[in-house]
Amino acid sequence: MPAAREDIRDFLRREPASILVEVTGVAGSAPRDTDAWMLVSDRAIFATIGGGQLEYMAIDQARRALRSGLAAEPMNVPLGPEIGQCCGGRVGLAFTALNPELANKLVARSDREMAARPHVYVFGAGHVGDALAMALSLAPLRVVLVDTREDELTACAMPRIETCLTAMPEAVVRDAPAGSSFVILTHDHALDFLIAAEALKRADAAYVGMIGSKTKRATFRNWLSRETGHGDLFDRLICPIGGTAVKDKRPTVIATLAAAEIMTAALTWAADRARLAGTVSR
């Protein structure tokens, strides 16, 4: 089932009288870059330009404009001790009253941003899988929870997590877009091995990780070499996931550690690809 879209449509429907706040310029260190924006109504906000006193000032400026009916003046804010921030940079902000055309552009922009999010496939809707999917769903990622068991997926229904019920999880790997991350933690080690072997064939994967012990890692290495003849692919596998510094094996702890690891790999891959695309286009 598809994950719910970011709720910009709901916000626009509830708060048609809003002002768009955009970061138009950044000099030095600042909380966000020039792609940041937010919507402000008299009682709610959508998204963020970085929080802190800068955002409070922007919200106040927007709401004064809403109350007065006058256009809000642009702001150029030094991020220094006078506003309680020590970033040291300077941020320019622009304010635009919402109209139907602008609302449509924002929806389209939000949809593009959602479509461009890196995919993360979590194989296994068990304790760690559920916790990991939940942690990743808070990040700018498209999270897909994959399992062969319908009941397990139904029990993990959450708004920003897609679910995929399939008898052949390895086929999901083959159909995934470039830059996808694959995290393997099913209830069946043999199934883990099949999925991991398929994922390791994807040279365009951002991340391939499998939950497991040293013994499972060694067993998979031997299996991969024997069954596929591609033992050289093993070095790309992250196992165990989440590192080895913390020995706590509680599902939520493993999920939290792994989420940071996966998000770093996924967003780095996406940024590198975007940078390369920009270089080629020039």
Automatic annotation (TrEMBL):
Domain called XdhC- CoxI: residue spans: 18-69
Stretch forming the signal peptide: none
InterPro entries, A to Z: MoCofactor_Util/Proc, NAD(P)-bd_dom_sf, Xanthine_DH_XdhC, XdhC_CoxI, XdhC_Rossmann_dom
Pfam families registered for this protein in UniProt: XdhC_C (PF13478), XdhC_CoxI (PF02625)
Domain XdhC Rossmann: 120-262
PANTHER family, A to Z: ALDEHYDE OXIDOREDUCTASE MOLYBDENUM COFACTOR ASSEMBLY PROTEIN, XANTHINE DEHYDROGENASE SUBUNIT A-RELATED
The protein's name: Xanthine dehydrogenase accessory factor
